[in-house]
Design brief:
The structure is a homododecamer.
Chain A: E1 3-9, H1 21-24, H2 29-43, E2 45-51, H3 55-64, E3 71-75, H4 84-93, E4 97-101, E5 123-126, H5 131-143
Parallel strand pairs in A: 1-2, 1-3, 3-4, 4-5
């Protein structure tokens, strides 16, 4: 049976394509989601993709993933830098979670240097634009066997 | 007439029993809520119990408590450590609020050492698992007379 | 055609008139909103006013403003001090945003000294109570021509 | 056979009733000790109560408690904030210890925000005046069974 | 009788129009002072405008304002960030003082994030170029009645 | 009736004359105490002088001074820099206390720059060797009338 | 013509298989290098793999890569955390460089939280053991076209 | 021949009597200067008293004192906390200088805790209102013999 | 004539054998003291061994050692990390003092990283359990000749 | 036509020869100025030399240099370490400015480690006594062609 | 069979006898190595002694020691304070390592207070000049049995 | 006889002309070395110039300079900011060393603000591109006589 991946886009990622194209690329999130879905299918995963600007909603989805998802790909956006509540949620649900970012966050503004969720993620991939998501799928292919 | 208590469980506390049983115990939140309700009744309080992973929802509930609750028992979970918005809400509604935690937060990771809501709470009780809630009820019995 | 302003009140501002009248004044938010509306009309703006205690909701509204509002007046309340997610939203939507506060935040508690949203706002006005909003309208009158 | 509790009052607590009555109440320590003794008896504990302004004396008493006390209630006063020697003593004797404070220490001056003894205590109760001690007895009733 | 405003420009503001036009605009200080004077007259204030690069001179002027000015508009330039002596002067003279800045100081270099004079000003207005001064006049119109 | 002063020398001050004569002078503490007594008599005070290396002992003496001493002259030695327990004792007994030091502590090693007891003392005199004590007597003469 | 990748293993990575197998896996570096070579071949890259414990040697190799390598995969080991000299070398050679780590460095000891080389890398991949290298090859496949 | 003392009052001290009487007393600086002069005469000193709000003026006066004054009494006001230039001037002129303050500066706002001039003064006297000056004269009587 | 060594065990060291045997070994302090005495005799020293949990008592003993001991071996326990009073005592008595610790303090909890007494000790030996004391005797054999 | 240099000596530099000869040398400032003038002439520059202890005066001179001086040599003395106002002045006038110091400021007291003006200077020369000025002239010879 | 010790001298230790004789003694490293060898022989160890100024060389030697040395005596010189790469090498090879220093590093300049290798060493000995090495041999005699 | 200078270029300086020409100029290091040699000859020095990316190599060269070089000109590149080992080497060899930098390091990224070698250099020259080296030769001309 196919492994199930849950992809969660955090705050402001719905504006991808509009927001700083030099950093985030010019494709819309809809287009990127299509690529993620196609890549999952090609690599033998089913997937579910969600986006929210609400910290609490992201936590709810992480909880609901228990018993349903085999892996989580999370771009927590700016919540990466201060949401200890998301940190606790990832720790609680015990599903392997990969942290992804469009940009290389350690190379940008100071407040983006600290990831409070990294300590509870199995790994992190940053700086490859939309490919960060595809590389996380590659990673789960190597991990979830 | 009986005094009314509002018990608010913050983020990830709905996973109690699932999440790190060594820290949070193995009873589900439903079971714990039953004990809280029974204890309130025995001690002569009515109570209302809520849980949310949403910072904004917790603030809304604190506001709605004005004119209805005589005391608030709040386990703000990880929001304890950075939600100045919840801090402001407690200060605004002027209902006595007791901060509770399952674990002794000063004995865990660094980011759990600071409580930003403590300055606006009448007291805090931490480290007694589910009993932290029952002790808060004991405390209100001594305070609300 | 008239310029459109979006006024967003952040967390706990719905309690204005109830919460620390010495700091925030004794008028209710409803009354203040009336004054804001009247002043907008007088100065030749249309306006829309919203309040939420939810960080995610505020981000959603900032996003929805794209293509509709010509200027944003934002009192982010306590989110001012830690919401990098709101920071990112303001930066993404590229609508001129003025930060306002009832009180002179640098003159209060330490945690209110830092505004994480200031770097993406065109200006800030603080310390004039409800007049901070009216002065922001004055400012837009000088800017949006 | 009854469980034995050791109550230790740290520095300056002998002045209770004299020192800042707004913070510590107006009863003398003698009166409070009477209430603690009565409450212990009612709840089925024997107890021994001591006070010292000497850090070394407090450590000596903690050591002597080995093999005699089943639980310790410690209000370490200002030593709470810098006595790593008391920290080591609590860790060494391995008797469950509850930290209590009259006032909600995180809500007062900065130097009172850090408790260096919390990491070796089973829990902490702060902010309920003399009732903090009684609540600690309630807590031991729930723990020591 | 008309209210009297004292406008003080601090260090380097005499170079406005020459210094970083992208930040400070290209009008000379003389031209800006004309606009300030005209706006005061239109709004019913008399005003006096001064500029100095000397910290001590600014303090002297603040002292001399006692009994003569009803409001002070102060752009303390770089002294904003370290002159506790100006802080003390504003506190001593007890005339309402509004802090203004051409640029949004929290959005520039780190050393400009802290205003040591903000705690003794009634409010602050930053980021609107020369209009910051005019908005301060608007503010005094709302305050000084 | 004569006012009564209590002079307390803290840790290591019994070694005066032996310890770093360049800093503390070459007279023994006994000789200095004679001068203090003579000066008190000449200025119309009775006095009592004590020395201890024990933090707890110093606190006990501060407590015992209640109802007996009209002023306290305290050289807390190294406890000056970390004894919040002595800080609390001075605050509790409410007798005016002057902090004295042989050397100008802000001019020596870093750890001597902070006085945790200064906030509860009426004043401080440092840097005049044994004369710091005599100047404190002069000060009490001006204060205790 | 095939793109050329340079893989550099930094200090102590020659001990892989020996050093903390729980963190770094139990395969020897020789075995891992075989996998890296095979994967490169399969994905259409030529590659060259080197290891050194010498900071200066790594810098020399980075310099020599100019005009020869199209991409660099660098696991700088502990140098990641303090070698500004390697930082400068990467910046100088202007060949896209991906930072890789066996473990999720943000989840380990404090001193491993900061990467001083991240700001000059195109991206980083951490936490997937030897797969971090393979994912970097996947990433270059997406980038170097 | 009589010893000559130079008394320098720093910024804002000319407002004594007007500024926060609770802290600085209600006498004018003129009255206080009279008392200082009388006390000097009585104790056998000649004296010269000056006040300036200008950091540079204070430095000039310190320089001019070389060869003329035997002791300096300096209340540097807020310059105490950041004027390394005054620090250097005191060090350069090599005349014994006593730092005085009306209030006990370590007991007030944080920015008043550090004296950058203390390391080059022979001693400091703080917290005795105008008497701080008189005590400094007493101190010079004991020192300058 | 034989050289005399003074060995001082600080707080909680009386519990050696009871407290964390993994860190401190399972021999009682009595047994260890026997070994220290025997080793001293064998190496040609006389010795005196004392233990106290009281900071003040340790200071008193350091003072009494003047003129009697030729070398001091001090395990100050947790006082190592904050007792500037013990620091001052060692500096005052001018007897060579070697700091010893059972465990390698820099390898344990953060608060044990700083030794405030190290700057006034001739050397320090840590991490060898009871042998730390014997090595200190070896050291004095090399120093005290 | 000859290039014009402006040399500004900041606070306390008028005391050179008097102040710490070990650090600043024993020649008077007048003698040094003679050497500077002679060296300028020899190297083909005209020069103007000024000294002030007043921060504001230095700023005024920097402003007046616009259109007159081709290069500025500034020894800002202690203002180097905190005068952001001088920083702003140098930035505003856009004349190349070289920072000079007699001593190697990074090798002296802590407060001298930071130069707040360095970021707006073209270069800095420190540690060569009066030769620092001559080396700055050498430097301008290489720069101003 | 005899135990084998590896002694590694880090950077600048080859200059012993030349460099600051007051701190490091006046014997050459060759002479000291002779004493170390003689002492090893007398105490029943074989030994190998090496010196390098190269961080990478020290790491290589630590690696080569696996399977050959029973104990390592490392004076890492200044690398002690920042070489996390040496830290990792010691941790990886799992041979007991004793950190030695000629001087008492905590008593010297600030940057020498932190040892980044201490956490992976079994113990440390500092302050006894060349005897620090001999004491480490003494220590291994007690450990390696 | 001619004085001998040793010029050492540290890491990445071999890339001069390639690396950020805006900062470092467009001449190759070979060309710059020619100018340094010519200038030395003209000014009456012999010189030797070396470059290495290896921290240990630089230390070795510093050691070898003893007895051969009269002055050292060192551009330690990024090692400037953390190599305490180079710091120690300079201190040990006791040859006057001048620190040079192409750019004004205090004006660039934060990590370049601290020079750990400055405290052991006689002076430093930064910000003049290749001329920094020539100015150092000028400086030695003034020093080495």
């Amino acid at each position: 049976m196919k492994k199930q991946l849950l992809v969660i886009h955090g705050p402001n990622i719905n504006l991808t394509g509009v927001r700083e194209p030099g950093v985030y690329g010019s494709e819309s999130l809809g287009q990127i989601d299509e690529e993620i879905r196609a890549y999952c299918e090609k690599e033998g995963f089913t997937c579910e993709i969600r986006q929210s600007n609400h910290e609490g909603q992201i936590i709810d989805w992480l909880h609901e993933a228990m018993g349903r998802a085999d892996g989580i790909i999370l771009n927590a956006g700016a919540y990466t830098h201060y949401s200890y509540a998301i940190h606790d949620a990832i720790a609680a649900v015990k599903i392997p979670c990969i942290e992804v970012h469009f940009s290389n966050i350690q190379a940008r503004n100071d407040f983006r240097h600290l990831s409070v969720i990294a300590p509870v993620c199995v790994g992190s991939i940053a700086g490859f634009g939309k490919n960060s998501y595809l590389l996380a799928i590659d990673a789960f292919k190597k991990i979830l066997v």
